[in-house]
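#struct-help
A.M.: can someone run this one for me? Single chain, 64 residues.
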Amino acid sequence: MLITGILITIVAFFMILVPQFFMGLKSPRIPDKLLKNPKMKIVLRIWGSIFVIVGILLIVFSII
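D.P.: on it. Structure tokens below:
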């Protein structure tokens, strides 16, 4: 659980810092109209922050 929490936290931080990278991934395919929408970056940052919290909780629960 500790390693999983660390990996989730690292990927989530990158999702918050560099949402363009995750929007450019081929799977699932996102239409170009959505990629140019600035709200899409905000959505990815929100998901990233949720996963940061989940990753930190996994780390805390594995240590306790």
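A.M.: thanks! The helical segments are 2-17, 19-23, 32-35, 38-63.
D.P.: also worth noting: The mean pLDDT is 85.
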